[in-house]
């Protein structure tokens, strides 16, 4: 080959390689062309299926974190009645998602809630403090926290392992690729840990759930975020809420610095956040909270009113995270939704639903210093101590004599000793 032609050929080859490499780089970012439903969805505000907001259901995803026991059982039964009488417009009972940690959880209650159609998800074994521990946790420790709790939910509450699809890290603290690779390789469908800022204002659209098919390029609110891609794995974004005064932002309803002071303010907070989604792009409304918010009477009354108000709307569905993802994979209009199979009723209250459900399972408390007990679990620790304190297993002659026992024994030993000396 002529030198002139061979130089041109090499030049062409280099240019071609650069172009291909550049295109490859472009392929690494998520676009509507290279990422399509049902298995891939780019982060964004556009409505799946290209529908108009008024054509689709407004989904409301209420999620509670931490242990389930007598501290919150009454609240959950009031908001989501055991008879399934609160129904979505398709005639099926409303649902919520519970991210359950192990310590202090009564698995009998989990079994009942699951049979009523609530989604049960994983929230660790120990839920230990501090938050930083979860950022720096070793792969083996995190694997144990995630997978052992998944096993607990399946073995102790009879939740089918395939139904445990979601994970939320304690304190919304991600552990980068360590966490995502464990979830991805162990058949989880979604993570609900990653926090995202409040949209610019009340008129700005809200982020929809998305998949991690392409490397993570979004703002990393709490580090470390993942860097790698996890095709088909979903992120349920924890979009920050606005308080009732529209001044401060909060990841959880119960974390707002401007705490509501009465029922109207509590209701206003829930309602204003709802309207933002409902009047813009109808992304699911993410209501994340801990049951302790409901310890205040006007808060649970407001939440009750909020749910009842939503039930009166023909285009609103109070549902679970997994059902929201099912809809996203196969978006349906309001007119089609009543025949949408994944949203068909799965309410099967078990026979002994009204039976007394106590601490049938004694939680294995993870050995750790008292100072590491998370604040939200303090109350359960006190309650457990009180309950067990009622059962005094000492012999009858020692009961009610703890304070006197030592001095009396010491005196007897002393008298015997004196007698022996005198003998
Ligand atoms: Zn928690």
UniProtKB/TrEMBL annotation:
<dbReference type="GO" id="GO:0005975">
    <property type="term" value="P:carbohydrate metabolic process"/>
</dbReference>
<dbReference type="InterPro" id="IPR052740">
    <property type="entry name" value="CE4"/>
</dbReference>
<feature type="region of interest" description="Disordered">
    <location>
        <begin position="370"/>
        <end position="393"/>
    </location>
</feature>
<protein>
    <submittedName>
        <fullName>Uncharacterized protein</fullName>
    </submittedName>
</protein>
<keyword id="KW-0732">Signal</keyword>
<feature type="compositionally biased region" description="Basic and acidic residues">
    <location>
        <begin position="377"/>
        <end position="389"/>
    </location>
</feature>
<dbReference type="InterPro" id="IPR011330">
    <property type="entry name" value="Glyco_hydro/deAcase_b/a-brl"/>
</dbReference>
<feature type="signal peptide">
    <location>
        <begin position="1"/>
        <end position="22"/>
    </location>
</feature>
């Amino acid at each position: 080959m002529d030198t002139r032609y061979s130089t041109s050929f090499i030049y062409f080859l280099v240019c071609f390689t650069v172009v291909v490499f550049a295109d490859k780089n472009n392929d690494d970012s998520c676009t509507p062309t290279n990422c399509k439903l049902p298995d891939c969805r780019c982060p964004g505000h556009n409505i799946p299926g290209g529908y108009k907001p008024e054509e689709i259901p407004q989904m409301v995803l209420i999620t509670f974190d931490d242990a389930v026991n007598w501290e919150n059982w009454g609240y959950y039964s009031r908001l989501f009645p055991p008879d399934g009488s609160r129904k979505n417009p398709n005639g099926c009972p409303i649902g919520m998602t519970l991210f359950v940690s192990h310590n202090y959880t009564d698995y009998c209650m989990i079994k009942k809630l699951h049979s009523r159609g609530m989604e049960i998800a994983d929230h660790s074994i120990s839920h230990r403090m501090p938050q930083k521990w979860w950022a720096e946790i070793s792969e083996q420790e995190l694997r144990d926290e995630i997978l052992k709790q998944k096993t607990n939910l399946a073995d102790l509450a009879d939740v089918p392992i395939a139904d445990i699809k979601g994970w939320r890290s304690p304190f919304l603290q991600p552990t980068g690729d360590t966490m995502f690779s464990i979830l991805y390789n162990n058949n989880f469908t979604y993570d609900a840990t990653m926090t995202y800022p409040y949209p610019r204002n009340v008129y700005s659209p809200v982020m929809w759930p998305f998949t991690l098919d392409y490397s993570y390029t979004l703002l990393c609110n709490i580090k470390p975020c993942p860097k790698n891609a996890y095709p088909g794995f979903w992120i349920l974004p924890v979009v920050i809420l606005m308080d009732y005064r529209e001044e401060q932002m909060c990841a959880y309803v119960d974390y707002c610095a401007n705490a509501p002071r009465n029922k109207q303010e509590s209701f206003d907070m829930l309602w204003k956040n709802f309207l933002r989604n409902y009047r813009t792009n109808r992304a699911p409304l993410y209501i994340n909270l801990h049951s302790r918010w409901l310890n205040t009477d006007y808060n649970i009354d407001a939440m009750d009113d909020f749910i009842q108000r939503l039930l009166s709307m023909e285009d609103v569905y109070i549902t679970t995270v997994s059902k929201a993802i099912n809809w996203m994979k196969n978006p349906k209009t309001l007119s089609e939704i009543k025949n949408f199979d994944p949203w068909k009723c799965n309410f099967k209250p078990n026979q002994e639903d009204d039976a007394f459900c106590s601490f049938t399972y004694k939680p294995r408390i993870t050995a750790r210093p008292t100072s590491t007990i998370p604040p939200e679990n303090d109350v359960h620790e006190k309650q457990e101590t009180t309950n067990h304190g009622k059962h005094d297993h000492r012999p009858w002659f020692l009961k009610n004599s703890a304070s006197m026992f030592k001095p009396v024994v010491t005196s007897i030993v002393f008298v015997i000793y004196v007698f022996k000396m005198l003998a």
